[in-house]
Amino acid sequence: MNTYLSSVRLSDKAFEGLVEYFSKVDEPTIIMMYGDHQPSWDDETKELLAQHPAWEDESLQTLSQYYVPYIVWANYDIEEHNYLLGWNEKVSSSEKLHLNSLSTNYVGTYLMSQAGVELSEYDKYLLNLHEEVPAITAIGVWDKDGNYYGDAASSPFSERLKNQEMIQYNLIFDDKNKLNECFLP
């Protein structure tokens, strides 16, 4: 854990230096920093973490492995959002796990939207999908009301998510039949 926390401190200082530099630059700049996974812990650290109240709920233990905080900074005014890349908190009024509204599959589109970059049809499609299904992960999907579906195929969004997979496949792998006009502004 000490190694991890020391690395976080070094990353934080490097991010501070980057922000200080770009705060003096005239060219409009947006910086986003996030991690792509949680750290792997040794057994002693896992035992220590298990004492946290969130670990009493097995679903929270699993979800905590997928939670990824992020920060967006700009040297000009942009719209502020309070998104998290992963689960956030248990909502007491409904006792449903609440997932804030951004998963990593939307990050690029979100950032381009914030920057005022012209979006492709694909990016517009993602923004539209984000409104209904704000979080898509390896362990399930959440809808805009915080409802969790462990199996995306049995969710009310299964058809849209299946279409999303096909579009992603076309973008990433299907060089022969790629629909370039959909992915370019």
Q: If you average the pLDDT, what whole number results?
A: 80
Order of H and E elements: HEHHEEEHHEEEHH
Uncertain ranges = 84-100
Structural class: alpha+beta
Largest sheet: 3 strands, antiparallel
What is the tally of beta strands?
7
Please give the order of strands in the largest beta sheet.
Answer: 5-6-7
Strand content: 5-15%
Shape: globular
Radius of gyration: 19 Å
Number of helices: 7
Question: What level of helicity do the residues show?
Answer: 40-55%
How widely separated are the two ends?
44 Å
Outline:
The chain is an alpha+beta fold. It contains 7 helices and 7 strands; from the N terminus they run αβααβββααβββαα. Strand 6 and strand 7 (148-149) form a beta hairpin.
Q: Would you give an account of this structure?
A:
It is built from 7 helices and 7 strands, in the order αβααβββααβββαα. The protein has helices at residues 2-22, 43-49, 58-64, 107-115, 121-132, 158-172, 180-183, and strands at 30-34, 70-74, 87-91, 96-99, 135-137, 140-142, 148-149.
Which key features would you list for this structure?
185 residues; alpha+beta; 3-stranded antiparallel sheet; two-stranded antiparallel ribbon; 7 helices
List the helices and strands and how they pair.
Elements: H1 2-22, E1 30-34, H2 43-49, H3 58-64, E2 70-74, E3 87-91, E4 96-99, H4 107-115, H5 121-132, E5 135-137, E6 140-142, E7 148-149, H6 158-172, H7 180-183
Antiparallel strand pairs: 1-2, 3-4, 5-6, 6-7
